[in-house]
Design a protein that fits this description.
Blueprint lengths: L2 E6 L6 H7 L1 E3 L6 H9 L5 E6 L6 E14 L23 E16 H5 L18 E4 L1 H10 L2
Parallel strand pairs: 1-3
Antiparallel strand pairs: 1-6, 2-5, 3-4, 4-5
The structure holds a DNA duplex (12 and 12 nucleotides).
Length: about 150
DNA sequence: GCCAACGTTGGC
DNA sequence: GCCAACGTTGGC
């Protein structure tokens, strides 16, 4: 079992949206490193849901991988903002996983709180200049963040 | 709205 | 292959 963190702007897609829908294909990742992490994901992997570019920035809940990586259809869709002219159905560039809702924290674990927690030292999210939207998280860090949500 | 940090593109 | 220019991310 592996642990991850994925970012989303709540104006675009929030934890509440996921809770309503139950599950969702994680479309729109257009960064190779992030894509490669998604390809490593296994069924049942636990994923922290992080709200970026938001009023309240931080981890807001937990989701679970319910379908392993497959081509992101928005790369072929000319009308999509995620369209990629260099991607073909024979040679897709971008993949995604489907995630299912697990829990929403009663209160977000904010970025400020994450930064001030010494045991989270080394969390990739907190490293300088990290803009990755899909990030692996150590089990201990994952459990620590769950603890902070209580 | 600003801007630092980073990734990508494309000319050479 | 280098690197300047440009675009994007995301916190503040």
């Amino acid at each position: 079992m592996n642990y991850w963190l994925m970012k989303s702007e709540p104006d675009v897609f929030s934890i509440d949206d996921l809770q309503k829908k139950g599950q969702e294909p994680w479309t729109g990742v257009r960064n190779y490193q992030a894509r490669n992490f998604m390809k490593e994901m296994k069924l049942g992997d636990q994923v922290l849901f992080y709200h970026s570019n938001a009023e309240i920035i931080g981890v807001v809940g937990v989701m679970e991988v319910v379908r392993t990586a497959y081509p992101d259809p928005t790369q072929f869709d000319k009308k999509s903002e995620y369209f990629d002219a260099k991607a073909t159905k024979e040679k897709p560039r971008w993949e995604m996983v489907d995630v299912g809702f697990k829990t929403k924290f009663r209160k977000a674990v904010t970025l400020t709180e994450l930064k001030s927690e010494p045991t989270l030292d080394g969390l990739i999210l907190l490293q300088k200049g990290t803009r990755l939207s899909v990030i692996p998280v150590e089990k201990d860090h994952f459990l620590q963040i769950l603890k902070m949500a209580k």
